[in-house]
Specification:
- This protein has helices at 21-32, 45-52, 59-79, 92-98, 112-121, 132-138, 157-167; strands at 10-14, 35-37, 83-86, 103-109, 149-152.
- By secondary structure, it is an alpha/beta fold.
- It starts with 9 loop residues before the first strand and ends in a 6-residue tail after the last helix.
- It binds adenosine-5'-diphosphate and 6-phosphogluconic acid (6PG).
- Adenosine-5'-diphosphate binds at residues 15, 17-23, 86, 118, 121-122, 155-157, 160.
- Pathway: Carbohydrate acid metabolism.
- It holds the Pfam family SKI.
- It is an enzyme of class 2 (transferase).
């Protein structure tokens, strides 16, 4: 594993369902040789069952999940291992939970039409496309004071990864 560069934060790739978090975060981690975790895999069985049934998660459902993601971040910080993790992180107060650590948010932002099309085409996932509207309703895009990076989710995955690497001036070591 590549050791953490001093002052190097953990990257949290955020956005609504279908914005490309899993694809881009995995590609970014691969490009950098960093650890990767998909926040989707850290949901409780109850949360997955709820989303699978087409019911949006609420704040109480998301709180323990955010704490699990925070634990992943802390473990990586403590071990000095850089990483990329996905988390929808739709609301400012969710991001505030994760921001207690040294993280940088990368927001994948795209139109409802494009993301809806992608979700309709995606077949191997528990999250139903019908939940996109509630995801967009919940989304509070990062404010300028949050120092997040916003990437146009309508580019190709390779372009998005290259942009993130360039903006953060990251290099494989
Ligand atoms: N930049 C992109 N260009 C084209 N298709 C993409 C892009 N990013 C993701 N996809 C596709 O869109 C769908 C949703 O992407 P995914 O990474 O699962 O999003 P999320 O993790 O945010 O739900 C997947 O089928 C994925 O292959
Ligand atoms: O906060 C939420 O409502 C969920 O966490 C959701 O946003 C999340 O992203 C799911 O895990 C679905 O997975 P995909 O984002 O991969 O569709």
């Amino acid at each position: 594993m590549t050791p953490l560069i001093e002052g190097q934060p953990i990257i949290v790739v955020m956005g609504v369902s279908g914005s490309g978090k899993s694809t881009i975060a995995a590609g970014l981690a691969d490009e950098l040789g960093w650890d990767f975790e998909d926040g989707d895999n850290l949901h409780s069985d109850e949360n997955v069952a709820k989303m699978s049934a087409g019911i949006p998660l609420d704040d109480a459902d998301r709180q323990p999940w955010l704490e699990t993601i925070s634990s992943w971040i802390v473990e990586h910080e403590m071990a000095g291992v850089p990483g990329v993790i996905t988390c929808s992180a739709l609301k400012r107060r969710y991001r505030d939970v994760l921001r207690e650590r040294d993280v940088v948010f990368v927001h994948l932002a795209g139109s409802r039409g494009l993301i809806g099309d992608r979700l309709t085409q995606r077949s191997d996932h528990y999250m139903p496309p019908a939940l996109l509207d509630s995801q967009l309703d919940s989304l509070e895009p990062p404010e300028p004071s949050e120092n997040a990076i916003t990437v146009n989710a309508e580019k190709t995955p390779a372009e998005e990864v290259a942009e993130i690497v360039a903006v953060l001036a990251l290099r494989r070591r």
